[in-house]
Structures
1.
Amino acid sequence: MVITKFHKFLEYLSNNFNIDIFKNLNSFSKRISYCDENIERISSGSSRIVYKINDEKVLKLAKNTKGLEQNKNEIQYRSDSYINYILAKIYDYDEDGVWLEMEYAQKMKIADFKRIVGIDFKIYTQALSNFYFHVLNNDVYLWKYNIDPDIEEKIWNNEFISGVFDLLGSYDLTFDDLNRTSTYGIVEREGQETIVIIDYGLSKEIYNKYYNIKRK
């Protein structure tokens, strides 16, 4: 993940994206055309398009109302000092949630999670399920995973996982996204590889309003 000066120079030569020009574009079609012409589109979902600006930043562009709301949530959460260390940083943003600039993260594999966090990803998601359904929602009828007490103690004392618990406890997030490796990425912080959450805008309110077909 080391980025050399030469690498940055090559990136500069091939990248014509200018955030000031982008900010002055006044329609979705102009924004998407400008981005498609100048930077790499790395993902596109039903609500947002993500572009790679360079090896430090990505641009999340809202496609519709649910994209706007997810961007606004991520903008809001990034200012919470209790949890922002587990979240990809946000550098710049539109007040209305039209777009935001976020820290670029490398893709995370299951093996990366255990290597960096120190807990198996499957056990981590089981602990999340137990915390979400039994601690936060007091659902005594739902299946509870039986986790080894020694591992469970390590989980509760793990800085990253404690931060995720705080995130779930403080905000009305959906649980399902946190089960996916694509929700996480790897960044470098103080010279060390660190796992961060890169997709944290989907609240239960947004999910029920736009994604939960059963409620429609």
2.
Amino acid sequence: MDILKTIDLKKYYGSGDTTVKALDGVNLTVADGEFAAIVGTSGSGKSTLLHMLGGLDRPTSGKVQVEGKDIFSLKDDALTIFRRRKIGFVFQSYNLVPVLNVYENIVLPIELDGNKIDKHHIDNIIETLGLAEKINSLPNQLSGGQQQRVAIARALASKPAILLADEPTGNLDSKTSLDVMGLLKITSERFSQTIVMITHNEEIAQTADRIVRIEDGRIVGGANV
């Protein structure tokens, strides 16, 4: 079953001779439980695509469907709620709340949504990511790799339909990067979690089940449409 689908997705900036086609008719499908890496050079459109997939920016035209729902048919408030419940984000910069400890950072999205915390699920994530001894620590007491583990745990906590990872190893050294990628792979398998990751790093991309290549705003390989 396809959990994510884009249909002729376009994002243009400017007009006339100065038009920049950041995305120029992207058709992409991602199956439930799949780990897909989107690879491209700087300026290829991969970050723009990730922002569209996550509903962080609206396209010029085309559709993004998550679990069969056209997310851009939703008004802004409804889209915000849908994004919080259905899409987990892992960014290069971690984005942890400095005054909250590890456990509080992980469960924050669930509490913001007013939902009951599934303690068994949270404990399973914490164990899988090796954070059990750090749950009372503040972010500034953690290494970069540990902070990224917390960010992954937070993204998984609400059981999202999709986890989107934006250059998740960009601020990490090579050994820590491989450790984090190994953990992403494990979480994908253990929780049957659909993951879409963008990266410019070919070695990192090899961890994924499938590599999708993007150049000049167009998919040039691995689209599976």
3.
Amino acid sequence: MRENYHTGKTLTTTEWVEVLQDNEITNEKDISILQAMYSFEDNKAAASQIGMILTGETGRKASGPINLEMGNWGKRLVKKYPIRFTKREDGTERKWDLFFDGWSDNNSNLFIWKIKDELSEALRETGLTGEEQFAEEIPIDEFPNLTEGLKRTIQVNTYERNPKARQKCIEYWKPICSVCDFEFEKIYGELGKGFIHVHHLIPVSEVGQAYQVDPINDLRPVCPNCHAMLHRTNPPLTIEELKNNIKMPGYNIV
């Protein structure tokens, strides 16, 4: 349920492209926030969810820096573009709604932001969505005419696709498969350096909107083969279950 829905004036997609490419207005922090949000379903999330991914903090410690940066970004934006902040009933300015639509969600008790459509389109036009997509991770909705067999391809969820969550997971666990210990760099050299998939340990069906991903405890690096095998069942196999499946006489894990 949405309550207290807010939407402020916005720029055109062309103007947002200019803003994203103007380093006097937009910095790396701003792009990181947008990329983290873009990876969520419908490009919407709470500041605390974004902060958890970018900083590893929770609660106010997670949302505070995000709110602060959005305010600073807004101040830089209005210096160059004829756009103004909307105001709350108490007269304080609502800076985030230059970039997002927002509402209170009764189910999660979170205030949800959604990237404005024009800004989302600008991220796609500039190639700044942060998405990393592999051939076997085809988003089904974009290819409605695929055969049923292909429709059973891996559907990577928002937490696995989130660039910052992926980065933190791989930095901690290293780009080595958690199931079979395969490491692409050892086999393919420089071409394979850093390449790996990321698997979410909690079944998607158990993840609610209020859920905050912990990149170290909730995600694991896996090779594409093991990733596909984990998703052969619904719910997916656990990493230990798959390990038990392949630890058979005559089979040696790399």
